[in-house]
Amino acid sequence: MSERDQEVNLRHRLSGLSRLPLLRGTRVQGEAARLERQLERLKADTTDEAIWRSVELARHPERPYTLDYVSRILEDWVELHGDRGRADDGALVTGLGRLDGRTVALVGHQKGRDVKERLDRQFGMAYPEGYVKAMRVMEIAERFGFPLLSLVDTPGAYPGVAAEQHGQGGAIARSQAAMARLTVPTVACIIGEGGSGGAVAIAVADRVLMQENAIYSVITPEGCAAILWRDAGEAKKAAAAFKPDALHCLDLGVVDAVVAEPEGGAQNDHGEAARLLKAALVESLEELEDTPGEELRRRRRAKFRGMGVFA
Amino acid sequence: MSEARIDVQVEHRHAPPPAEGKHPNTCPKCGSHYRDDELEAALWVCRHCGHHYPMRARARIAWYADEGSFVEEAADVRSEDPLDFFDLRPYAERLAEAELNTGLGEAVVIGQAAIGGHPVELSVMDFTFMGGSMGSAVGEKFSRACDSALERGVPLVSVTSSGGARMQEGILSLMQLPKTVCAVEELHDARIPMITVMAHPTTAGVLASFASLGDVTIAEPGALIAFTGPRVVQQTTREKLPDDFGLAEQNLRFGHVDAIVPRPEQLDYLLRVLRLFS
After folding, report:
1. Element counts in chain B: helices (H) and strands (E)
2. Is the dihedral of CA B163, B169, B173, B179 positive or negative?
3. In a domain, B90, yes or no
4. Which residues of chain B register pLDDT less than 50?
5. Mean pLDDT, range A32-47, rounded to an integer
6. pLDDT tens-digit profile of A284-293?
7. A160 at the B interface (CB within 8 A)?
8. Nearest to B192 by CA among B141, B139, B138, B148
9. B88 contacts chain A (CB < 8 A)
10. Which residue, A140, A211, A213, B53, could crosslink B44 as a Cys pair with Cβ 3.0–4.6 Å?
11. A21-303, what's its fold?
C-alpha cells in the first residue's frame, strides 16, 4: 500500500471512529474534547516512536492490574482459587462478582506490584494450571449463565521446565476451545501486555476490547528482535515492524474497540481508568445480552474464522 | 532455507541438524549415510539408529494416501503481507524464495484422500517452507481442511511440523490460533474424528492450537513437542533441563500424546484408528 493510500485509509477509519465512537469510554461520558484529543493523538501516532511508547506504557510498573480493576469495578468479589488438580496459579486470577447488578465470572492475568508479589505471580506468566483454573471458572459461567469477563495482561505463558511438562501448549489450546464453546456473553479487554498464546488463551471473546496504550502481539518485541534481527536490542525496530499498538490492532480487525485511558496513560489515575473500562465492559455486555447463546457462539466462531489476510 | 524460520532445530538436544557442509543425507545421530533412493525407500528413517529425518509434505501424502486418491484443495491460497513487514529482508521476498525453494505455495498441503480405502481429509505441514510457520494462509488452509472433512463427513488426518506462528504477519498470525481452534470445534460438534500426527518439530503457536486438539494424537520418535523450546527456557529461567526435555518421549511420559509411532508402523496404526471410528 502506498503512503498516500495509507493516509486515505487512516482518514476513512478515523471518520468511522467519530461516527461510531469506538473509543467507548469516551462516548459514555460524552466528552467530545477528549475524543478529539485522542483522535488527534491516534492520527499522529503512527510513528515508530509512538508504537514504542505504547510498549512502555503497557509495561508501566504503576499501570493498574486486574485486581486493581476488580476492586473498582465489581461488587461482592469472591476470588476462586486453584485448578482442583495441582496448584493455584497466582499469575491468573479468577472469581465471581457483580457488575452493575448482574453476576459475572472474571478471569484475568495478574502481575505483582513489589518484588515478592512479582515472583509469587511469575510476572503475570501463567502455568498450564492457571489456564485449567480459568477453564474451571468458564464452566461455572456456562452452567449458571453468568457472562464472562476476561482481562488480559501477560508477557506470555510461563516458559519453564515444569510448565512444559504439565502441558503448556495443550492448556492454551483447550482454554481457547473452552471459550469457543461458551453460550454466555463474553467480553475480553487487553489491559496491558497481550503477549502471544498466553494472552489469546483467554481472549476468544464475543467482543475484544483494547485499552489505548495496551499492546497485543504474537511475540514480545525482544523475542522477535532476537529471532529476526539476531539481537534482542533491536526490540524497537521489531515493534515498529509488527505494530502491536491498539490502532493497528483495530485496523486489522483483531479488536472490536479501543477503550480510552486517562491523560498520559492508565497509570496516572487508576480510578478514572477503571471508570472508563467499566463503562466499556457494561456497554459491550448490554449489546450482547439479548442475543441467544447458540447465536452468540456461532457469531463468535465466525468472527475468528474470518481473521487473517491472504490471497 | 529462509533465515526467517523459527529455528527450533538448532535447539534440539539430541538430533542436531547436519553441521555446515555435512550432507543432509548423513544421519545426524549416528553418521550413517544414505543415497536419496535408500532414504526414500526407508521413509526417511535411519535403518541403523531409527533417527527420523524430516519428511516433506508431498512425500508423506504420497505415502499415506492410496495411489491416485489424493485431490489437493485450496492450492491457490497464498500469504499476503498486511504489515509490509521488513526485518533484514522484506517478507514478500522471503515468501517468493520459499515458494521457489520448496515448490509449495504455503507451509501446509490439504486435500481429499483415501487411506487403505477409508476416505479422509489430509492436512500435512512442511517444515521447509519458512519453518512450517503459521500465518493467515496456513490458518485458512487448515480451516478449509476442517470444512471439507465436515462437508463429506470423513475423518481429518492432520500432520504437524512447525516452529509456530509466523512473526512477519504480526498479530494476525496469533489470530490463527483461535481461528484454527474454532474450526476444530466445528468438527468436534459434528463428531468428526481428528487424528493428529506430530512430526518434528511441533512447537509454539501450532502446538497451542489445532495440533493439541486431536481425538487421537501420536508423535514421531524424537520429535520436539514444546510450547517454548529448550533454548528459550534455558535462557529465561536458567533451569537445568532434563535430558529428554520437550521430546516426544517426555510428552508421552507426562500424558500429552497417546503414543509414539515410528514411521514404519504409522500406516497400520492410522488404519486401526480409522476402522475404530468408522
Report:
1. 10, 8
2. negative
3. yes
4. 1-16
5. 57
6. 999 999 999 9
7. yes
8. B148
9. yes
10. B53
11. 2-enoyl-CoA Hydratase; Chain A, domain 1 (3.90.226)
As for how many domains chain B has, the answer is 1
Q: Is B29 a member of any domain?
A: no
Cβ B133 vs Cβ B109: under 8 Å: no
Grid cell of A256 as nine digits: 472490536
* Domain-wise residue ranges, chain A: 21-303
Cβ contacts of residue A30 below 8 Å, gap of 6+? none
Are A86 and A129 in contact, with CB atoms under 8 Å apart?
yes
Task: Encode pLDDT of A175-185 as tens digits.
Answer: 999 999 999 99
State whether A311 and B80 contact (CB < 8 Å).
yes
Q: Name the minimum distance, in Å, from the CA of B8 to any CA of chain A.
A: 11
Interface test with A, best of B3, B76, B87, B93 (most A CBs within 10 A): B87
ipTM: 0.93
B contacts of A172 (beta carbons < 8 Å): 177, 208-209, 227
Q: Is A196 on the interface with B (CB under 8 A)?
A: yes
Contact with chain A for residue B225, Cβ under 8 A: yes
Q: What 8-state DSSP symbol labels residue B74?
A: S
* Cα(B218)–Cα(B181) distance, integer angstroms: 19
Residue A158 pLDDT class (50, 70, 90 cuts): very high
CA distance A87 to chain B (A): 17
**Predicted pLDDT at A27:** 40
pLDDT above 70 (res A298): yes
A3-23: average pLDDT:
45
Backbone angles phi, psi at A299, to 5 degrees: -65, -40
A219 and B211 within 8 Å at the Cβ level: the answer is no
B90-110 confidence digits (pLDDT tens): 999 999 999 999 999 999 999
- The whole-chain average pLDDT of chain A stands at 89
Cβ contact A243–B171 (<8 Å): yes
Q: What's the CA gap between B205 and B171, in Å, rounded?
A: 12
Chain B CB within 8 Å of residue A2 CB = no
DSSP B169: G
Owning domain of residue B133? 54-277
Half-sphere exposure of B24 (CA within 13 A, CB side): 8
